[in-house]
Amino acid sequence: MVGLKTLREVRQQQGRSLRDVAKAAGIAPGELSMIERGLRNTSVRKLRAICAALGLKDAVKLLDALVPDPKRPSSPA
Fold it and tell me: I need a labelling partner for 1 at 20 to 30 A (CA). Which of 10, 39, 71, 73 fits?
């Protein structure tokens, strides 16, 4: 069984910088750093954007199922 990885672990395994992922997610690098370290809570919208920036499609689908984004049209399951 594969254990859950933190956002930081995923980002580092991909060899991506904090700045790169933050830019792709539309947030400040300092904010992403604080989220990764558990020093700051974030909204579902920002978490969805971070997961999308990291290419975590299953996580984005799960977030969409749990808390649909009202700004995006719903897609068939």
Answer: 39
